Amino acid sequence: MNHDKDNIYASAQDQVADFEFDQKVANVFPDMIKRSVPGYSHIIANIGVLAEQYAQPNSQVYDLGCSLGAATIAMRQRIHAPGVKIIAVDNSQAMLDRSRQFLDLEDSPTVVETLCADITQLRLEQCSFAVLNFTLQFIEPNLRSATIAQIFDGMLPGGALILSEKLRFDNNEQDRLLTEHHHDFKRANGYSDLEISQKRQAIERVLLPETSQEHISRLHQAGFRTISQWFQSFNFASFIAIK
Ligand SMILES: Nc1ncnc2c1ncn2[C@@H]1O[C@H](C[S@+](CC[C@H]([NH3+])C(=O)[O-])CC(=O)[O-])[C@@H](O)[C@H]1O
Ligand SMILES: O=C(O)C(=O)Cc1ccccc1
């Protein structure tokens, strides 16, 4: 399996188009996400650890906005409850096609089904564990509450949702500093100032971050009982919400 280096924004573009999860991105995605999201590998490994804890026998586990299936692979390696099916969902066919190449590399008693669907339209069933690992931030803000509510409705008692997101901060100084530190992180991982600035333009209309408080309130409103922020690195965080 070749992991191409992300140089999508390396040369100057006249017009930077809005970011899309197309074939070009699918080809470089493992490199892009590791060099762009602080703590990504830590989050993926611990999604595996948490899935092992929360996956109930004969239930379903959902990876919502699975991209190439990194979280699915981590979960499949650790879940040993019997009769668990992982449903890995994405609305980008390019991402899903490539995810199958990764998923087919290993065999496991936990069945994995891939599904090309829009998660805002999805009804979950018998769900003991669901993952939104940097996916909600790409959903239109006015559809986010209904999407979280649908996940809650499809969940079994004691089920858990992992929500990882890029954050925005109400305090302008804090927002500016953490954004700068994130850009320093990208620079330290080999991205040039041009790459950082063009990628920033590409995502500014499609990745719409919210504050930690907005996420926590929405999860409470949907009915989740216990909500904890279990991870943060610069302006990237992950929450766990229990039904
Ligand atoms: N409405 C939607 N329905 C389904 N999928 C969607 C939708 N909108 C966006 N996506 C999909 O959500 C994924 C977001 S990437 C997730 C990383 C992964 N979770 C990982 O753990 O590696 C995050 C990032 O690139 O920052 C993409 O694959 C989109 O096609
Ligand atoms: O690259 C960035 O600046 C990000 O905020 C993270 C990211 C990672 C992968 C696709 C889109 C955004």
TrEMBL record:
Pfam families in UniProt: Methyltransf_25
CDD domains, sorted: AdoMet_MTases (cd02440)
Methyltransferase domain location: 61-159
Domain of life: Bacteria
Sequence positions that bind S-adenosyl-L-methionine: Y40, G65, C66, S67, D90, N91, D118, I119, N133, R200
GO biological process, one term: tRNA wobble uridine modification
GO MF term list: carboxyl- or carbamoyltransferase activity; S-adenosyl-L-methionine binding
Enzyme Commission number(s) of this protein: 2.1.3.-
Keywords, sorted A to Z: S-adenosyl-L-methionine, Transferase
Catalytic activity reported: prephenate + S-adenosyl-L-methionine = carboxy-S-adenosyl-L-methionine + 3-phenylpyruvate + H2O
HAMAP family reported in the protein's UniProt record: Cx_SAM_synthase (MF_01589)
Function of the protein: Catalyzes the conversion of S-adenosyl-L-methionine (SAM) to carboxy-S-adenosyl-L-methionine (Cx-SAM).
Quaternary structure note: Homodimer.
Family: Belongs to the class I-like SAM-binding methyltransferase superfamily. Cx-SAM synthase family.
Protein name: Carboxy-S-adenosyl-L-methionine synthase
Gene name per UniProt: cmoA
